[in-house]
Amino acid sequence: MCGASCPAHSRGDRVSVDTTTAGAGPKGPDGGASGGLPVSPSAGVLRPLGLAEVRIVGGFWGRRQHVNGSATIVHIEHWLEREGWLGNFDAAADGRLPGARRGREFADSEVYKLLEAMAWEIGRTGDEVVQGRYDAIVARVAAAQEPDGYLHTNFGRPGQDPRYSDLEWGHELYCFGHLIQAAVARLRTRGDHLLVQVARRVADQVCEVFGPGGIESVCGHAEVEPALVEFARATGERRYLEQARLFVERRGHHVLDDIEFGRAYFQDDVPVREADVLRGHAVRAMYFAEGAVDVATETGDEGLRDAVRRQFITTLARRTYLTGGMGSRHQDEGFGEDFALPPDRAYSETCAAVGSVQLAWRLLLSDADPTWADVIERALFNVVATSPAPDGRSFYYANTLHQRELASVPEPDVVSTRASSSLRAPWFTVSCCPTNVARTFAGLGAYLATADDHGLQLHQYAPARIRTRLADGREVAVDVDTDYPHRGTVRIRAAGRERQRWDLTLRIPAWVQGGAVISGGTRQDVAPGLARLPVDLEPGAELVLDLPVIPRFVWPDPRIDAVRGCVAVQRGPEVFCLESVDLPGGADVSRFQVDPGTPPTERDGRVWVRGVLGTPTDVAWPYRSEPAGTGDPVAVEVPLTAYHDWANRGPSTMRVWLPCDSGSV
Amino acid sequence: MCGASCPAHSRGDRVSVDTTTAGAGPKGPDGGASGGLPVSPSAGVLRPLGLAEVRIVGGFWGRRQHVNGSATIVHIEHWLEREGWLGNFDAAADGRLPGARRGREFADSEVYKLLEAMAWEIGRTGDEVVQGRYDAIVARVAAAQEPDGYLHTNFGRPGQDPRYSDLEWGHELYCFGHLIQAAVARLRTRGDHLLVQVARRVADQVCEVFGPGGIESVCGHAEVEPALVEFARATGERRYLEQARLFVERRGHHVLDDIEFGRAYFQDDVPVREADVLRGHAVRAMYFAEGAVDVATETGDEGLRDAVRRQFITTLARRTYLTGGMGSRHQDEGFGEDFALPPDRAYSETCAAVGSVQLAWRLLLSDADPTWADVIERALFNVVATSPAPDGRSFYYANTLHQRELASVPEPDVVSTRASSSLRAPWFTVSCCPTNVARTFAGLGAYLATADDHGLQLHQYAPARIRTRLADGREVAVDVDTDYPHRGTVRIRAAGRERQRWDLTLRIPAWVQGGAVISGGTRQDVAPGLARLPVDLEPGAELVLDLPVIPRFVWPDPRIDAVRGCVAVQRGPEVFCLESVDLPGGADVSRFQVDPGTPPTERDGRVWVRGVLGTPTDVAWPYRSEPAGTGDPVAVEVPLTAYHDWANRGPSTMRVWLPCDSGSV
């Protein structure tokens, strides 16, 4: 496997230009035609593949990519226009600020995340209509840039707060980060553009103001850190990396003011190398960790990378929901203490899951540990896929694991002020999640597979067309055909004109029992982790990966107090839930208790569990001198719903964790 | 029993002046010498007794009253001065606002709550030194009043927001409410005063601005509603009652703007008569409910009173912690949904418990239902008494039932910005709780007993000296001697010069099993509820109430998901908890599992439970395919601490709800 010694991934005094930046820098093994890489480290065990190298061609994720491209991106444009967040840039150019400004202080960032999503979508599809709309938006953004490069619609003009006067809450560098990420996406798909020039001037201004001798602080919301490293990778400008390094090292030294939630809220409580676990605002924590890993990768700082890896491992062991969701506090959108994971108050912000995917992907490229692909799979299926409605035009911001009361139905044409308590809403006062879903789905193909000197690694299973070349020129060309996760059969077929001779490494998810690879009539058992197989396939020949997708109970660690005495149901990577709409008479889910002694079954395309429906007795005081039983239990068998599909049939009460019938435990 | 037909409690077109308002209005049966009544309805089944009629003379509450008078009130004065919240009034008088203003928009209210506490303290003790300090503060407040009666240091001056421009968050009427309550306390203890004149002009201004034809809205934080009714009672001015009625009827009709937390936050979601349960911000909900009951009582509106009573009953059945604490959400300091009562995120604000005491007291006076006295006992022992440290100089704002991590130790000289996560703090940015504790403790004697035409009712048990007269002139003079709740023996001794011949009604708490009254050598069993006994005692003779105070397990309703599989321990009215400082080696409380089959015992003055101490195994992912057992369980017996005494030995992890050892269930 390649690593620091691999010429394609070497480190030098100057950051190497990423080889997949279209129209910028030297061509790499893929001839710069990767089609775009969401993350492009200059070192690491695995080499990421771009959007032209891995195309999703259908299935669970293909449907979502299609809806994203055909509906969600337009939907976002509509709302950005309608709410005036795009208009803020026009107002800036026309000198109508601050009077004409609309939206929150970070509204600019949603425009940038839309541009990033559009760039990946253009890279994926080559859609010139989208390109035209993209150009028009970029022109409006560019017109708002000030002569010195600064570009923010909420600060610095007469009548506005001065630039950088509120680093705790102002989100200036956060917005710049998303602008820069959008420019990186453009550089890696179609190459240079007005947006890239705008981003360069913004990044230069940041380096000037926050570099050595400048403001020795950081932004309350991390994001500029990974963006600057990626921009350094995409442009070859080392000073962007150096500025990111400064930001990463500064945070944690109490450079920001203390606030009600404590400095942990913006990870300014403890220096990154000394922290034990991710904490504070979950999205901030994720984005910052991404930036730290990126800095570590580009500077060869293994201590820094290992610190973040250790923190993420602890976070997964103690602060993560069954769905992969992170953040158990509404108050500060933040992590709770270890094992404080209430299902009913799960915040589990969609953006935090996007961040966990991005962080896990960076670690996967770095060390090839299949754990990270498990993390990505879990978060994608159970949080990111849960957020958008099937039509891609409304979203969950928070992703609760227990809905106690029927949610309100949002007006289709009204901005939601709430992160929770309603069904999926078309837009939010703080609308970070829809744009985050859009940019993730548009670039999703890139998270499926990687290569190294020896062959191909498949991390996620979806119908896909994979075409790349190894460093030595060998063609890798396979088509993946599967109905995963509905079924666990994955067919991998040699698709090129050449004979496929290389090593195939398959991630076997941690939940798999009884998995196997069938090749040339031979069945070989595979266990969770990595299965590495020498491949030697004539064009058209195939091998089959069989991952038995059977519903099963899952028990929580006894330290997770909030779900003591409960079980959940998973089927493959998907978490299931009970909705009241599936109970007799629409009974509230609180009345159901599951029989954990009877495993869940599958019938008529649904997953079923057995248990009892009780009728609790109303009491004046709910604390008694003896345990209360289930009132009038009636035996029932009830169907469950894949969690990502919940609330698609109108308001329901819902729970992922099912209390065990005490009579049957 | 007296009621609407009782001359002492009659209603008329004009609200009757309360008979215990010193120096104002006609003398009632107690000759105006009650010494002060915190609440004085003009109708109701029970007649409250004032601070001169019921004096606490020691014991659990006597110690706290002493600390409150000797330390807490001075402590509050110190911090109000130091933080400039008192100085705001000087700055207003000197024309130095808004520049010189300090503290939050509701800082004025803390000065008023201090004045209320001082008034009760003066009424209780006659302390002329306190009276002098009181006069000095009132003079500073009065100097800030504007010519038209308006008095708020945060609004209306050039450079400040205009008066009443932010009813959702401005807290103007809230502050006025506390000013008026302070004036009521003064009227009912020593009579007219400069403060009363100030409050009259404020109340008149409120009636003018918010009366018919004025602003048809309410304050985002209820408080002026009960204050205006009480002021009407204390002054005889019916228009104050009418204004309160308008405020009560208006709320719930969406007169305030919608906010992120929804209009339920300030009870503006549903009209008071139509609501099913208390909801939204818990303190706001309580104060509003008090005001509604007060309006209902003074206008004879039984439908309104019954609506609130029904809401409170449902709130107790579904939205109240074992401690009596209310509010399970940090985000909005609010109630969660039914049975959403996480112990670790219990907000259980001290002020909400004060509000629940005030609401329950109003309902008790109205209908004599002993449930309300149970509510008061529970909240006083387990929330209000938990807030202050033994020295009365630091406080809990939120009262969690489960401390997962060691709390930070607040600097003794620094204002805490946090409502939770530290030990008791001396002062807060939002410092409503210390002043609420102070006014409650100063007036606590009045909550112990009531009278009616037939005799005396004892609701709370504390060493006390009770002296009053019934409507027909019969003397009621008893001394109560008890070490309650440490011991359950309550001695009630005839103390006057006359033979005591009247009916004694004793509240038998709901937790009592095996209670009895011993009188004249006869033991008579009593059950939870009311025990009504004809008393015929020569001076010096006594009867004894025996309430067996034995530690016992308590099981939660199965719908309270967050404590499924757990038990708690109570002893009499006191809730107990486990602190890590009492575990071998200071082990974290998460490692203990209780044996629910072995009842708790008492030894060496402490309560003990048996169980096991486990050593959980660290796992990479805390959701598994089979239940996890207790790691290496070691049998232990551990002592518990009365919850109100927790964290008095430094930082500890703590839990009220103890997970049951699955091996022993």
UniProtKB/TrEMBL annotation, chains A, B:
Compositional bias annotation for Gly residues: 25-35
Keywords, comma-separated and alphabetical: Hydrolase
Start and end residues of each stretch annotated as Disordered: 1-39
Non-reducing end beta-L-arabinofuranosidase-like GH127 middle domain boundaries: 456-527
A matching Pfam family: Beta-AFase-like_GH127_cat
Transmembrane annotation, as ranges: none
InterPro entries in alphabetical order: 6-hairpin_glycosidase_sf (IPR008928), Beta-AFase-like (IPR049174), Beta-AFase-like_GH127_C (IPR049049), Beta-AFase-like_GH127_cat (IPR012878), Beta-AFase-like_GH127_middle (IPR049046)
Domain Non-reducing end beta-L-arabinofuranosidase-like GH127 C-terminal: 551-659
Single GO MF descriptor: hydrolase activity
UniProt domain Non-reducing end beta-L-arabinofuranosidase-like GH127 catalytic: residue ranges: 53-444
Domain of life (superkingdom): Bacteria
Protein name per the record: Glycoside hydrolase family 127 protein
